[in-house]
C-alpha cells in the first residue's frame, strides 16, 4: 500500500478553524513536522483542503 509523507510548511495561526482542525486531525502539531499516513481518499481529501499549508510526497 502506498504511503504519504505530509509536512506542515505554514503555521495554522490565523487560518480558518476548520483548517486548523484538519491540521490537528492529520497529527501535525509543529512547523516542519512530518507524519506518514496511508494513501486513502479520506487523507487525500484532508490534504486537498489545506494544500496551501502542507507539502506531501508519495513513499514506497
Please provide a written account of the structure.
- This protein is an alpha+beta fold.
- It has one domain (3-59): Ribosomal protein L30/L7 (Ribosomal Protein L30, Chain: A, 2-Layer Sandwich).
- It has two helices and three strands, in the order βαβαβ.
- The chain has helices spanning 17-25, 41-49; strands at 3-8, 34-38, 54-59.
- Strands 2-1-3 form a three-stranded antiparallel beta sheet, with no helix packed on it.
- The longest helix is centred in the middle third of the chain and has 9 residues, at 17-25.
Alpha-carbon distance between the two ends: 8 Å
The whole-number mean of residue pLDDT values reads 97
Compute the number of helices: 2
The main β sheet shows up as: 3 strands, antiparallel
**Any guess at the CATH architecture?**
2-Layer Sandwich
| The CATH top-level class label | Alpha Beta
Segments where pLDDT lies below 50 for 5+ residues? none
As a percent range, the share of helical residues equals 25-40%
Here the CATH topology equals Ribosomal Protein L30, Chain: A
Looking at CATH, the homologous superfamily is Ribosomal protein L30/L7
Please write out the topology.
Elements: E1 3-8, H1 17-25, E2 34-38, H2 41-49, E3 54-59
Antiparallel strand pairs: 1-2, 1-3
Q: What attributes characterize this protein structure?
A:
60 residues; alpha+beta; Ribosomal Protein L30, Chain: A
